[in-house]
Structure formats: C-alpha cells, structure tokens
Amino acid sequence: MSEQIANGAVLVVGGGISGLTAALEAAEVGKDVFLIEKKPSMGGRVAQLNQYFPKLCPPSCGLEINFKRIKDNRKIRMYTMTEVKSVSGSAGSYEVTCVTSPRYVNNNCTGCDACTEVCVEERDDDFNFGMGKTKAIYRPHEMSFPMKYVLDKNACSADTLDKIKAACKYDAIDTDMEAKEFTVNVDSIIWATGWNPYDPTKLDNLKYNESNAIITNMEMERLAAPNGPTAGKILRPGDDKEPESFAFVQCAGSRDENHLEYCSYICCMASMKQITYIRERYPEAPIYVFYIDLRTPGKYEKFREKLMSDPNTHFIKGKVADIIPESDGVTVVAENAVTGEKVQQKVDMAVLATGMEPAIKSQAAGLGLDIDSNGFVVSNPATGMISAGCAKKAADVVTSAQSATAAALKAIQAGK
Amino acid sequence: MKVNPDLDFIKYMKSAGGDTLKKCYQCATCSVVCPLSTDTKPFPRKEMIWAQWGLKEKLVADPDVLLCHQCGDCTAYCPRGAKPGDVLGAIRAYMYTHYGFPSGLAKMVSSSKNLPLTIGLPALIVLVVWFISGGMHLPSSADLGQYGFGHFFGHWDFRWLAKNVFFIDIIMLPAAGLAVFSAYKGVSSMWKAMEKQHNVTAQYRPSVNQFVKEFLWPSVQEIIQHTRFRECKTNINRVKGHLPLVLSFIGLLIVTAYSAFAQDVLGLIYPSLHGPMSLMNPVKILANVSAIAMIVGIGILWANRSAMEAEEGTTATYYDWFLIYEIMAVGVTGLAAELSRLIGIPALAYFFYYLHLVSVLMLFLYMPYTKFAHLVYRTFAMAFEKYRESSFVVKSEE
C-alpha cells in the first residue's frame, strides 16, 4: 500500500487555517506537499482575528502549533508571496505553474528591525485593513511566519533603498529580486484559497465610505486585537473616540440576491463574539444588534442566551437598510418587524457584519476550476481537484479544519 | 393569533403579479428604503406578511397599500426578489375588484379572459344607440366641415336639446353616474373598513365643508403637485409621464365642461356656438394641447413600464397595461377623429369618432374597477391618513 500512495505529491493552495491543516495532514502521512500562500506570511484570515471560536482563543493559539509542525516537517515545501498561474494535465498528474513575487528580502533576514529605523516612507497597513501605516519595509504583523521582512520597493525612494541596504548587517536586502516562475508536478491540488470580506462599498445604502463610524466586522477584529492598530482598544477610526454605543448590522451583503445570495454562516457568531470584546472594554455601553434571523448553531445557543440576558444589549429583528452619517457617529435605520415601527438608532459606531466572498471567484475560470454559482470551488476528488475550508463554502474555523482534513484524505488517495 | 388564510386570495395574488410574494423573508429592508413609508407604521413589510398569510380583510382596509406609488425602490433593494412593489400593485387591483359595484362588472373588467366582452359591451352600446338614433349615415364633407361630429347621432329641430347631445347623454350619463355611484359606494366601504381596522372613532363628525377643506383638498393638492411621486428614486421618471397626464385630464375636464355649457346652455341663446370650435379658440387650443399632453404622458408611462419590465423584472400585468392601452386609445382616437375631420374624410372621421366614443365610455364606465380607480381610492386613502391624525378622532392609547 505504501508504494501506491507514496509517490503522488499534493499542492495546497492557500496558507490559512484550512491550507495549513490540509498540508500537515497530507505531509504527516508521508506525502510530499507544496504549500503556497499569496501573502508574505501564513495564517490567513485567522491570523487577523482577535479571538476565534470555539474557545475564543487568540490566533497564536492554534496557528503557532501548526507553524511549528510545518517547520519540523521536511515533506512540506512552503512558498509565500506565491500564486498559481496555470494548471495543466489531468487527474493524477498535474503540472502547475506558480509565480513568486519578489519580496526583496532574502533568507538572511533575522528580523532585527534595523531596516525600518532608517526607512522614512510608509505604506497602508493592509493586514489592518488600512487602519494605520507600516514602514515601506515591514514585518507583516507581530507573529508573521516565516519571520522575514517584506520590502515595498515602489514606496521607497532610491535614497531610502540605499539606506536600508546599508543598515542591514546580514546582507538580506536584494532590490534586484525578480518574480520567479516554477512548476510543480502533483497528483492532486487542494484549493484552500479562503475568502475575502465582502466589499462594503457595494452596499450603497449602508454608506461605508461616508463615515468613520462605520467599520466592518473584520476591522473590529483588528481594533480588538492586541497586535492591531489601536493595541486592542476599540476606538473609532479617524478621531480615536471611545464609542459610547454600538450597532451591529447583520447580513450586510449576505442572504441578498443583489450581493451574496447565501448565508455567510459566521457573521452572527462573529458579532456575538465581538459583543464580548466590547463588554470587556465598555461594560455599560448600549449595543444594538439588527438581524433578520440569528443563526447560532448547536452549542452556540448558550452563548447567545448569555448575551441576550445583558440588559444593555438589544436584539432587534429587522435589517438595517439605511445608515445616515452624523457629525458624531451614525444613525442606523431599520423596521422592527416585531413591533412594526421604524427604529432610528443613533450610535457612535456601527459594525457591518459583512460576509464571506470566495477569494478565488474571479480567477477560477482561468485556472479551470469548477465553481458553483456563488464562486465556491466544487470539490472533485475523482479529478484530484479538491476544495477545502472557505473556498468550498462559508464556514467557521472548526468546520474549515474538518473540511481540510477531509480534503487531505481525498488528496492522498488521488494518486492511486 | 388565529389565522384563517384565504386560499383564493393567495391564488389571486399569484395571478395578478404577486407571484414573488412567497420569497419574502421579512427582513424589512423594503420598509426602510421606501421613501413614502412613515416611522410609526412603515410599509410594505407588514403587507407582505399579511398577503403571505392571505389576510385579505386586513389588506383591503389598509391605507398604506394605496399610499404606495410603486416607486420600485423596495423591489430594487429587496434581497430576495420578492418585488414588494409589484405585490402591492396586485393588492390594489384586488381592492378595486373587492369594493367594485356591481361586483359582476368589477370582476369582468379585472380579468384578461373577459377582454372581448370588456371591449365588446361598450362597442355594442354605442353602435346600438347609433342605430336607434337613426343618425347612422356618413355625412358629406361639407356637413362634416360645418357641424363636425354634431350630427353623429342625427339632428332634430327641438332646439332645447340637440339630438346629438341627447344620445351622447343617454350613453355617457348613466355610465358616469354608475361610475360615480360605484366609486362612492366603494370609497365609503373602504373608509368604514379602515376606521374599523385602525380603531378610529370620530370624536365629532367633520362637516362636508370641513372634510373637503381639511382632508380632501390638501390630498388633491399633493396629488396634483406629485409631492409623493417625486420622493421616488428608482422610478422617478414616471413623474415625467404622470404629471402631463394628470394635467391633460384636468384640461380636458375644463374643455368638456365648457363645451357642454357653451353648446347646451349658451347655445340655446346663441346658436352660432354649435358646431366645431375654431382652432384659434383658446378652449380649442387647451383641448388640443391637453390631447397631445395625454398622448405624450401615457407614452412616457408606457415606455417606462416596458423598461421596468425589461430591466427590473417588474411583472407585466393586465391591470397595469389595460389602463395604459385604454388611455392611449382615448387620446389617439380623439386626435385621429379630429385630424380626419379637418382633412375632410367623413368615413374615417366617423370611424375614429365611433372608436373615441367607445374608449371614452370604457374609461368612464370602468373607472372604479380598473387601475384608474386609484384616482378616487388613493385620494381618499390620503384623506383618511390626514383624518386619523386629526383632532376629530378619539386618540386611543395603543
């Protein structure tokens, strides 16, 4: 049996919780695994969270153990800043062309931080959704893995580049680095390409762009995270005010034919989790949750019951369909479908519970992937094209890890 | 709460363009994006669930159904494609049939299956009256030029009442009378139902004068100014069609009133007032401008509705299109009759005049049952809204 399954390598596309899990599961039974990640560091969306279900752990718990396992496993070859360019071949024998973008920092980097001290230029911090800046040479975030800096060459003047080079004692800066293309031959591909938060600017009635008091749920994660732009204080972007009241706008773009027609599954629990973040910091602040239906699967019912017993947390059945920017905060407008009256609630901060959009959606056709009408990758174990985690369907971390393990199990059989 | 759904009503809703109703999941987006919806009793979310449950008694007593102008903002933002705007249109259609008297006539007009009868009946009435009158011959070009359509139903020498006027009156007056009576009956039933549903008891009754001054006239002003219509976002273009149309109806009302007065009253003293008016006569100018405004207005509404159906997936319904075709027919036949009279082709002129009489008869006779009924029902629903907020009403503590 070992002969039959030992030769087929697996490509895992995406280094988030699903990709990490799938790569490790496949490698730990002896498969050669190529793990590629588009971003400069592993960990995906989970790394951006403050805490995650089921136990409200910080992402370091969970991700770090996986990083350790990857470091120790010689079967896994990991590539960051790398994307799939094309796929050829067929079931059991794929040739995949990958492209690695230049990081301009080589493996000599020790993370000593000498370079950032001499760098004057800054760039928008995409890890924090543009809330805050980093230097043009930066570490993606505090626990980024691999522990290597990244240089945004276009953001730097020639003078700064020279200074950075001079400051690096390890000769780690290589400004001549170019994009590198390489091919891998694998039996199967696990697509663990994850999700992007739905673009809130498409929800024109919610006016995300028109007020600093409107943030998305992922921005809330960053605000609450100790390694985030506010070091874990929940402050209103722009004026750094401590908000005295909050509104959660559920189904912002989800369950909506005009946007994402499916339920994104995680947003109800994400908002409830974020209520606990707020409660830790602002024990009395009124919180209003506007929802169509609350989806709190399984044991999360208990979690909901506990939150609903808080007299300062109000759950209103009715979707927010208009947000009016005010000089200080916003007014969210909904109809309370239980009382039949319109609610106009002025709050200091509104959180849009935006949903999950499959990240691979727009590229799927070019890569020959079978996607459903919503852009999720249809798993096809027979052809060795297997999807996992949020590339497959909207899911939480637990479900993603399960689906990644299942994907690994299918992938190791594909070479038979 | 005990719910007795009316299955026939639900079936009706499906047939009348409300087939998307079942998709609604009560998120209430519609009530918020609706520019006409109020804070204390927003719509159309509640109407959607009433309709899903088949609670027609609640719906036919709900002024909000009539306050809806089908802007389409709700439909545009609806996350489920439930098209609340179309559903409320279908409820209004149901309402007019529900309150229509006699109900047989109301039902006949409401269904496309009866279209041959709906057109055939007025066509036959006018034809039969034409035969009875004995006027049934084509005039010479000279006569047409001199008398216009004044001898369509023939001529007699009884100077106090022209034969033509007599025969037109025996067609149009009963039709208009029935329409007015039916509208009055319908509106008062609706008013009572609304009072009952909304627990409105009069503290003291407004006099007719007070009623008109405080509730009806402000509503009419709002309607003519298109105040609410202009709040619409998605289908704001409809104002461009509806406004000229309303003004043309007012213009033609003035023309008709003047011409009746001039011919039937003043004409008794000054016989020269009989026969077609000069094209330079200010009243005639108003008539022609109105006729063109009518055709242009209804043309714009026609185009808008076609566009709505093509772009936004608004359901095409008999209820909506019947009125568009009917008004277009009135305008086009009227203008065609006038033009062929001016050119001097008697056969063509009489043919179009006949069609014009038929279409005008249809407009009058079917007013309370077709979409045209919004003219009275919406006006009174708006008046009701003002009335229930007024000091005439006992304020109940709900």
Automatic annotation (TrEMBL), chain A:
> Is ATP-binding there in the keyword field?
no
Question: Mind listing the UniProt keywords for this protein, alphabetically?
Answer: 4Fe-4S, Iron, Iron-sulfur, Metal-binding, Oxidoreductase
* One Pfam family here: FAD_oxidored
Q: Which GO terms describe its molecular function?
A: 4 iron, 4 sulfur cluster binding; metal ion binding; oxidoreductase activity
Residue ranges of every copy of the 4Fe-4S ferredoxin-type domain listed in the record = 100-119
What is the name of the protein in this document?
CoB--CoM heterodisulfide reductase iron-sulfur subunit A family protein
Q: Which organism is it from?
A: Candidatus Desulfobia pelagia
The beginning of the lineage is: Bacteria, Pseudomonadati, Thermodesulfobacteriota, Desulfobulbia, Desulfobulbales
UniProtKB/TrEMBL annotation, chain B:
The record's section on Pfam families has: Fer4_8
Q: Where are the transmembrane segments?
A: 115-133, 165-184, 243-261, 285-304, 316-337, 343-366
Q: Which key words tag this protein in UniProt?
A: 4Fe-4S, Iron, Iron-sulfur, Membrane, Metal-binding, Oxidoreductase, Transmembrane, Transmembrane helix
Q: Read off the InterPro entries from this record.
A: 4Fe4S_Fe-S-bd, 4Fe4S_Fe_S_CS, HdrC_iron-sulfur_subunit, Helical_ferredxn, NarG-like_sf
Write down the superkingdom of origin.
Bacteria
Give a Gene Ontology cellular component term annotated to this protein.
plasma membrane
Keyword check for Chaperone: no
Entry keyword annotation includes Transmembrane: yes
Q: Domain named 4Fe-4S ferredoxin-type: which ranges? A: 57-88
What is the recorded name of this protein? Quinone-interacting membrane-bound oxidoreductase complex subunit QmoC
Q: Which organism is it from?
A: Candidatus Desulfobia pelagia
